[in-house]
Amino acid sequence: MKKLLASTALIASLSLPAMAQETLDPNATPGGNITVTYKDDVATLDPAIGYDWQNWSMIKSLFDGLMDYEPGTTTLRPGLAESYEVSEDGLTFTFALRPGVVFHNGREMTAEDVKYSLDRVTLPETASPGAGFFAAIAGYDAMASGEATTLEGVTVVDPLTVQITLSRPDATFLHVMALNFASVVPQEAVEEAAGDFGRMPVGTGAFKLADWTVGQSLLFEKNADYWRAGLPYLDTVTFEVGQEPIVALLRLQNGEVDVPGDGIPPAKFQEVMADPEQAARVVEGGQLQTGYITLNVTAAPFDQVEVRQAVNMAINKDRIVQLINGRAVPANQPLPPSMPGYTADYDGYAYDVEAAKALLAEAGLADGFETELYVMNTDPNPRIAQAIQQDLAAIGVTASIQSLAQANVIEAGGAGTAPMIWSGGMAWIADFPDPSNFFGPILGCAGAEEGGWNWSKFCNAEIDAAATAADSMIDPATPERLAMWSDVYMKVMEEAPWVPVFNEQRYTMKSARMGGDDALYVDPVSIPVNYDYVYVTE
Predict the structure, then answer these.
(1) Do the domain assignments include residue 269?
(2) pLDDT attached to residue 14
(3) Of 159, 251, 395, 451, which has the fewest CB atoms closer than 10 Å, so is most exposed?
């Protein structure tokens, strides 16, 4: 796989049997239920729409795409496609589908379902925050403009073969086919849901939705017809919502909860780590993450670059890192340090209150201004927002804090009604390990559309073109391509639509009875937990 990804100019073909034979964990005991808690209810389980920390792993367990990842890693493998071929020019991908795969409603999946799903995610009326990922597919622009209702580049060859033609090479295309947004869904189930597919999901995944009591709980049950033999191990997963993180931690300590979905409450972190019994159940993992403040460039006064640069200079990032017990390092650019394309010799905007005041005066705002800062209402995010509020006050900016449920913050960001957003709890974690992933959805023009994840609504055609040029190279790891991405992010920082604040390390906990490799609990793809592969030991 790595050789293929390094040079898609090679014709490649991978084949697996229809019922994929997994290397099962010899210690796994099939059966049982686990309980996972969250403070907020789930916004949606529609793979074309869902795009947050909370629902990502849920959706991944309900649905599959043509491509997938080895559990606990970012190593690509075939999913619903049992094999694929790539043309020598890197523009045409032919996927042979795995026969005998059935949806949760009992119908067998075909190539028509793949085409329908890709058409659906790119239709403007779907308002998918992931539509821009598919921009390289021929016909995408016509879809985005409303001139077409089907992707020209997606062709059904026969019931088990689909061909996807790109308008330009895309070094990340196979990764895109592994995203939740590329999940295959049945048209009849979407239509029967009458606009509520997010509450009535039907996929091909390891689990299916058995019950959803809004505001209380969701119950996932094992898909007995799952195409990966021997999986999942668990019979059911119960997601309890409305649980304060501190209460969830106490319940975990009492053996009533298996995974606290919101993680370890910052106020309890030192206490947990000081107790050897509890610390033994803590799972730590690296992640390609950046926490940031978005500045809505379409609304005054953030439509002035001097104001945005001033806000960058006003934020004391070291103090914010201290608020989360040092579980991060200050950030100075959108890319995290371990991501290819990171600019190591860039210093960013120094913390300088007087320089920030001078920039505001230059922008005609010597007396400051009033604004609103939106934040997710789960600790430590309100406390971080208060620290940001205090930093802004030091340069004469009065920011009222709007502390809301995650879904409400996401809605305001997508609609462009939030002047500023602290991204904590929703901060960007790479969908795949490539520098392009920190641009298109969250800084590119495609992501700035209604419902998109580009909450700064930043859209610079020149920078977009440079990003496209970087992605149009066949080899994703060439030094030339990584240098092009470095240039893209340096230009972004000149425009300052964000304040990069920190790059965070991931910590979570599991109950004493949970089994499976620790990497499954900080899975870089099935964020936060890969439910398909974890199990209970008692």
Answers:
(1) no
(2) 39
(3) 159
